[in-house]
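Q: Given only this backbone (652 positions), what sequence would you predict?
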């Protein structure tokens, strides 16, 4: 009898201190939440410069362009207040907003959407099904609007975040997507990979009501009482002076990691970070599966199974060297672990990631992220915007300060019986007459001065700055839809628009990669949580009705790509034209034309045709046809009946 193969316990059993979570529970006990909070706070503070830059970029985008601080006589003061104290008006011409709107228009005009392609070509039909399911989920989450606003955020701050999760919302259990405000988000400041693959910690600061808090974390009465004790001031509204101002406006730089701006909200800090523990990586040679298991499951999954296969091989007379055993190796596994914390050091919830994609629920993209730096599209033109505002303010001040119709009236010319006020009234009157004394020799006559001091080069400087603005941003007049100059050819205008789009291609493709990453997590969540068969139909389409079978699609690997959407008017018109040509050549029937085309009357007409066909097959006269056609239908029906009777007689 062959000897049983034994493994050393020291090779597979965990060593003290290797499991980071277990070690923290043992050494820190109930205070381990503070260690996680401290680390998360350091990452959050490291993004203070980004938050200030984002606030400045947002102010310039939405017209608050004189909010920068300057130092005057050792005192910090806003530029707007300084200009007002000098007696001037802080004028502005918001060019940045127009530029952002032009880029958003380009993004929306692309009308792209993610589609799924199965890596195994034999499973491509499942890729088409998953594409339909993904598009239905995007419609459920209003992703067209979310992605447009995220694109605007991407242009302003250079950093965009979404959260992909599964749960209850509005009495519906489904996969959801949330926009995450970058001010409430933090990441590992050691990350340098553009894709974010080297990230070791991410998190978000949530400010929610006490009712939402209980709906998320209270599983029974004891949990409710615990939450009521932790957030007793937020629960009892009588203790609070809730903040009702500043709706829709910035918080004037108030950002705190532990204390919310509105004290009626409950702050919950969500932290996802990489933890480590010893595990076993296995390769089942029998079927090719590669998987990892916990140390506790090693005996049942590996040792017992290998012994069972060896026993079967002995019974079959197979050589032990030919037995397909499960190969394994010990390794330190790095995995995502989440904490839901209160600012007071309480752990509301924790655990290893529940998602089968084995990652955190966030999708984020920073631009350009060279050496970890974030520089937004808006920040490139702030200097041009500031100089433009300064020029138009200076222009306005010069025009107001210059002499316009000033009357020079020598005192020697003042007639008797009239004062200077009388002269001024008469001067301003239509067809007024002023009598003057005969001036002495060398005394000038009264004259009006209108000094034009505005032609000092400000117009040229302003035109130059506007040209710089377009050159730096890449958003020129053709891209904004401005008409070309007289005699400009259509090809030249189209080429200018195409060149401007090329300058924005890197920005748009970077955002497309962000949308693709989000769609990948959506697909993984759908495969994991859609555990019952469902029927999906994309709103606005007639033929895209699919049945989702979780047993068939659950283990299919999909590749995602961003392609032109089929929901655009141009695509629908092209499809209808092609179908009409096929129908005119009798290549398809009317039913196929209505089923696959996109016509506003298709459903009603298709239902009417099917109803008439059923009546004809039953020998009835369809409703709504002329008497001559009804008589012809009846004759055809009688002839068909006589022919069938003759065939029956001949057969007998």
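A: Predicted residues:
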């Amino acid at each position: 009898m062959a000897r049983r193969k034994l493994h050393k316990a020291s090779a597979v059993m965990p060593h003290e201190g290797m499991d980071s979570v277990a070690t923290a529970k043992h050494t820190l006990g109930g205070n381990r939440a503070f260690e996680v909070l401290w680390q998360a706070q350091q990452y959050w503070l490291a993004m203070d410069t980004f938050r200030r830059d984002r606030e400045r970029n947002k102010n310039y985008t939405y017209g608050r362009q004189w909010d920068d601080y300057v130092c005057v006589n050792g005192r910090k003061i806003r530029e707007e207040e300084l200009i007002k104290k000098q007696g001037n008006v802080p004028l502005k011409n918001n060019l940045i907003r127009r530029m952002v709107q032009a880029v958003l228009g380009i993004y929306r005009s692309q009308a792209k959407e993610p589609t799924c392609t199965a890596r195994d070509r034999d499973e491509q039909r499942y890729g088409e099904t998953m594409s339909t399911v993904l598009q239905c989920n995007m419609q459920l989450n209003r992703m067209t609007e979310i992605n447009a606003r995220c694109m605007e955020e991407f242009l302003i701050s250079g950093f965009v975040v979404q959260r992909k999760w599964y749960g209850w919302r509005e009495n519906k259990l489904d996969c959801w997507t949330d926009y995450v405000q970058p001010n409430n988000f933090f990441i590992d400041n050691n990350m340098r990979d553009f894709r974010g693959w080297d990230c070791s910690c991410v998190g978000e600061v949530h400010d929610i009501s006490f009712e939402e808090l209980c709906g998320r974390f209270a599983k029974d009465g004891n949990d409710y009482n615990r939450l009521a004790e932790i957030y007793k001031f937020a629960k009892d509204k009588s203790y609070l002076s809730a903040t009702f101002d500043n709706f829709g406006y910035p918080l004037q730089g108030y950002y705190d990691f532990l204390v919310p701006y509105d004290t009626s909200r409950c702050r919950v800090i969500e932290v996802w970070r990489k933890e480590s523990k010893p595990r076993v990586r296995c390769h089942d040679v029998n079927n090719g599966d590669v998987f990892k298991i916990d140390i506790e499951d090693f005996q049942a999954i590996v040792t017992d199974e290998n012994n069972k296969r060896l026993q079967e091989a002995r019974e079959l007379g197979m050589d032990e060297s030919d037995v397909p055993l499960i190969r394994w190796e010990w390794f330190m596994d790095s995995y995502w672990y989440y904490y839901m914390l209160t600012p007071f050091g309480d752990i509301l919830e924790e655990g290893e990631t529940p998602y089968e994609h084995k990652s955190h629920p966030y999708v984020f993209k920073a631009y350009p992220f060279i050496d970890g730096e974030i520089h937004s599209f808006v920040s490139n033109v702030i200097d041009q915007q500031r100089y433009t505002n300064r020029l138009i303010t200076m222009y306005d001040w010069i025009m107001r300060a210059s002499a316009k119709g000033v009357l020079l009236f020598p005192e020697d010319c003042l007639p008797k019986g009239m004062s200077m006020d009388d002269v001024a009234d008469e001067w301003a009157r239509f067809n007024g007459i002023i009598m003057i004394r005969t001036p002495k020799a060398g005394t000038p006559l009264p004259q009006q001065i209108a000094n034009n001091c505005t032609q000092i080069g400000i117009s040229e400087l302003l035109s130059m700055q506007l040209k710089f603005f377009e050159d730096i941003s890449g958003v020129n007049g053709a891209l904004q839809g401005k008409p070309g100059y007289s005699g400009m050819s259509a090809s030249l205008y189209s080429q200018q628009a195409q060149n401007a789009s090329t300058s924005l291609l890197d920005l748009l493709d970077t955002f497309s990669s962000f949308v693709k990453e989000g769609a990948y997590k959506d697909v993984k969540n759908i495969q994991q949580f859609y555990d019952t068969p469902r029927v999906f139909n994309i709103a606005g389409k007639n033929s895209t009705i699919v049945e989702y079978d979780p047993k068939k699609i659950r283990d299919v690997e999909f590749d995602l790509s961003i392609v032109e959407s089929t929901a655009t008017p141009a695509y629908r018109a092209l499809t209808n034209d092609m179908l009409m040509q096929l129908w005119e050549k009798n290549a398809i029937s009317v039913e196929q034309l209505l089923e696959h085309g996109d016509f506003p009357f298709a459903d009603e007409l298709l239902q009417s045709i099917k109803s008439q066909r059923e009546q004809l097959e039953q020998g009835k006269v369809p409703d709504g046809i002329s008497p001559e056609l009804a008589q012809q239908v009846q004759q055809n029906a009688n002839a068909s009946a006589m022919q069938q009777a003759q065939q029956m007689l001949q057969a007998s």
